[in-house]
Design goal:
With about 500 residues, the chain is an alpha/beta fold. About 40% of the residues lie in helices and about 20% in strands. The chain has one domain: Metal-dependent hydrolases (TIM Barrel), CATH 3.20.20. Helix 2 crosses helix 16. The longest helix is centred in the C-terminal third of the chain and has 26 residues. The protein is globular. The protein starts with a strand and ends in a 15-residue tail after the last helix.
Length: about 500
């Protein structure tokens, strides 16, 4: 039995008994799990001892929504709403898929960025058109296995033509351009579920920390039978149904134009809102939407930074919380955020909701933000019995931060320091399942310098090829811009105000 004992640390457990109230104590870790928390704990003579003096020990952060497929597009785009940005980050006029080595490196780079900044669990909904391939999914799993991170992984599924999932698209886009968007026969629900079952059989539970989740891209992008089959399998396997709903005003218009109701209402009528349902974004939701989500026990991943960069809006987080919905935090992809740092998302989420109105009692507090970043994220990933808090029996997924840094000097309230002052630079140690994966700012699982050098060598050719795809897809720019313009000026009869800053 291997043991690690962290002595005399400041502990922030995020467990029900203590929440965000710090206290002094020790943590005993045995075979990757937390065995005891208290004062004056003893360990075997062979145990690894860590001096916790002037150190904070807290749960690792959870990135509840991201896309590793964007990792090579950091710092590439700005000034585009979602529907236009998608043309370039996820070209409709596609080229060859990224090769296996770059697929591995792309995934590994996201893991590296995450780990160095205190994220111990990621939910990666990567995109890998045109087909779902088990060997390519295995490549992503291998990258995360090598990095030592905990992850829920899937490749986004869709089987509705892009133009049929957007309002006004068929009437705006010239016919000759529509004819270029030939994606072949749509994937059947049976084919995707067969793929998912193969993934569960061969990859789910790998290294006891890598899981497969089910990710229909969005309700308007999937046929009803695909959504229902995905939900049934998610419930059967006890994993999230991870999807995107109501990120933009365009998507809000889509629901009412195509289905005569909101996309949440559509999901509700299909019977696919439940405890397993995790919704990325949830910006343009109505009061009735939130009531349905709360009654079903859904979770949302609040992407506070990405939603601002893409001009999507501000999710009504206080209203969502009041409806009983679990709130987690996500970075979204590196292209729509430019980092994988949940510390950045925490700070933005702690600030933007204060412009929602004069009732400052309803503003979001630092302790609530920390809950979203830890145990809330674990619940959204259906991993709350594994990670998200420092509890006996849970995996030792934790961070050790130096409390003598500028971010904590002078020390007032730890929760507020973490949300408003810290950016990850105070992290000394990152541990996952009791294994140290970052120590003194250095990754312990891989040769970081060699990986970065290889990426720098290989990426120019890839980005040059991608630039040609961007040029091809620029032909569709004016269509997407007009869809965005029409949608933002369309009244959709929502039963609460929309489009402005909201809490």
């Amino acid at each position: 039995m291997s043991q690690t004992l962290i002595k005399n640390a400041t502990l922030l457990t995020m467990c029900p008994q203590n929440g965000t109230k710090p206290f002094e104590g020790d943590i005993l870790i045995e075979d990757g799990r937390i065995a005891a928390i208290g004062q004056n704990l003893a360990a075997q003579p062979s145990a690894t001892l860590i001096d916790g003096h002037s150190r904070l020990v807290m749960p690792g952060l959870i990135n509840a929504h991201t896309h590793s497929s964007e990792t090579f597009f950091r710092g590439r785009y700005e000034g585009m709403p979602l529907e236009i940005w998608l043309l370039y980050a996820y070209p409709l006029l596609m080229g060859p898929v990224i090769d296996d080595r770059l697929l591995y490196l792309r995934s590994l780079l996201l893991a590296m960025d995450s780990l160095r900044n205190g994220v111990t669990t990621i939910c990666d909904d990567f995109f890998d058109p045109p087909v779902h391939d088990l060997s390519r999914l295995s490549t992503v799993f291998k990258a995360y296995d090598d990095a030592g991170i905990r992850a829920n992984v899937s490749s986004a599924a869709m089987n509705v033509h892009t133009l049929d999932a957007l309002p006004f698209a068929r009437e705006i886009m010239p016919r000759y351009l529509q004819e270029k968007l030939d994606f072949g026969p749509p994937m059947s629900a049976e084919a995707y579920i067969d793929y998912c079952r193969s993934a569960f059989a061969s990859l789910h539970g790998k290294a006891s920390r890598l899981n497969f989740m089910i990710a229909p891209s969005a309700p308007q992008r999937c046929t009803p039978d695909l959504l229902q089959a995905c939900h049934a399998l998610a419930v059967e396997m006890g994993v999230p149904l991870h999807t995107h709903i109501l990120e933009t005003k365009t998507q809000a218009v889509t629901g009412h134009q195509i289905y005569g109701k909101s996309l949440i209402g559509y999901m509700h009528d299909l019977g696919v809102l439940s405890r397993n349902t995790t919704i990325a974004h949830s910006v343009w939701v109505s009061e009735s939407d939130m009531e349905m989500m709360g009654d079903a026990g859904c979770s949302i991943a609040h992407n506070a930074v990405s939603n601002q960069k893409l001009g999507a809006g501000i999710a009504p987080i206080r209203h969502l919380m009041n409806a009983g919905i679990t709130i987690a935090l996500g970075t979204d992809g590196v292209s729509s955020n430019d980092t994988a740092r949940i510390f950045d998302v925490m700070r933005v989420a702690g600030l933007i909701h204060s412009v929602s109105g004069p009732d400052f009692d309803q503003w979001i507090r630092a302790d609530e933000i920390l809950t979203m970043a830890t145990i809330g994220g674990a619940r959204s990933a259906m991993l709350e019995n594994v990670t998200g808090s420092l509890d006996i029996g849970k995996a030792a997924d934790l961070l050790i931060l130096d409390l003598t840094t500028l971010s904590f000097t002078p020390l007032n309230d730890i929760a507020k320091h973490l949300v408003y002052a810290e950016n990850g630079s105070s992290i000394e140690t990152v541990m996952i399942a009791g294994r140290i994966v970052v120590q003194d700012g250095r990754l312990q699982t891989i040769d970081e310098a060699a990986i970065l050098a290889e990426i720098r060598e290989l990426i120019p050719a890839h980005l040059a090829a991608h630039a040609k795809l961007e040029a091809r897809n620029a032909a569709l720019h004016s269509t997407m811009a007009e869809i965005h313009r029409r949608a933002t000026s369309t009244e959709i009869g929502m039963n609460r105000y929309t489009g402005g800053p909201r809490a």
